[in-house]
């Protein structure tokens, strides 16, 4: 096959037409699939040593949530390194990142595969992948023709990324290939609620306003705080985290404001508090609703006047700290009942943000599931972790009272179960791997412990996560009450939850 000038002109016009529209990437990939006649295609952005899907066609929805690290995907690494068209033979020994992810062909391996690296100057900005079920599907395209396509797509992608950066007023780094650590966990979601939240984060991040982040437990409020800090002029300075629920009343004031030597028994030296540590940066106060009224009054003074006093010290210290606070409580109701100061509430909620529960985010469930599947694949050194159509339907139908955190644990538990009952290095998650009712979660973990003794640590940790999550759910997400129910010291419970990844 040979592209005529008219066909190339149409491709160029379609790619550049209305490139600022929100669905620009989806339209771009649809045009390419029509012209090239492939069974599946993906447009990927390269950032922080990984490929991030921008648009897909012919692939499972959860692919949009997956993050493909170069180190974890040899074919994508080959595309990134090549600098030119890459054709993978049908019998290539390199695992295909999309095996099991083409609806209707879950049990078949992808046969024909092309990769086109996309550049802006000398910088890699993305890749276009084309897949077909027939081994000779792309033989009719010459390398010269595919290079023309890559050049057109590179220009369109570069322009679209520039527009996106201008819209967000946030210049994303464009880096060359290297192999340091990938980017930290990100906010994943394309639902209307999440797109609106991301827009609000971009707006408030550039300011210096205090922000109150509200949302149910497990929705990702700490990720919102991190995104605000990283998008702010304070990003080069520290983001300091403090969980107010984990503060015993006897040391809470010292944790916040510091103390001087001899201020109380055990104060053997001067110590800086979180406010001093966060000077010129950001202080994230998680579970702010758990602070005592006495500490609320002292926090209000800092927000009003910008100075603190260490415990046992008469002198004041000036600090320049932006405060982000998070809560799973209805603080307006707490104000009405007298459990939270109205003046502090108004100081904190200059720009309130609400993180939606997972049950209100539609297909974001699948994107997040794909993200966690890919994390588990890397963690357990598996060649493949995919969701069956039935599993996807089950995840979409469930209400997720524990939100994103519950979904993460459910995917992790399902992978452990699937590995215990299936030989080989490929895991397909089926509906029966997701026992999501209250009565079945512990049974799943017991089965994992019994079935997979070589992974006893992982199964034990999953059991502990389940027990803690249940105790929290039964006690209105109050850590102190959950600790009593579990017959644990609350400080030990916080430490265990942090080690298990249930808290930052």
From TrEMBL:
Coiled coil: none
EC assignment: 3.6.1.15
Domain of life: Bacteria
Gene Ontology MF terms: ATP binding; DNA binding; ribonucleoside triphosphate phosphatase activity
InterPro entries, A to Z: AAA+_ATPase, AAA_lid_NorR, GAF, GAF-like_dom_sf, Homeodomain-like_sf, P-loop_NTPase, Sigma_54_int, Sigma_54_int_dom_ATP-bd_1
CDD domains hit by this protein: AAA
NCBIfam families cross-referenced by the UniProt entry: PRK05022.1 (NF003451)
PANTHER family in the cross-refs: ANAEROBIC NITRIC OXIDE REDUCTASE TRANSCRIPTION REGULATOR NORR (PTHR32071:SF35), TRANSCRIPTIONAL REGULATORY PROTEIN (PTHR32071)
Protein's UniProt name: Anaerobic nitric oxide reductase transcriptional regulator
Organism this protein belongs to: Trabulsiella guamensis ATCC 49490
Lineage, broadest ranks: Bacteria, Pseudomonadati, Pseudomonadota, Gammaproteobacteria, Enterobacterales
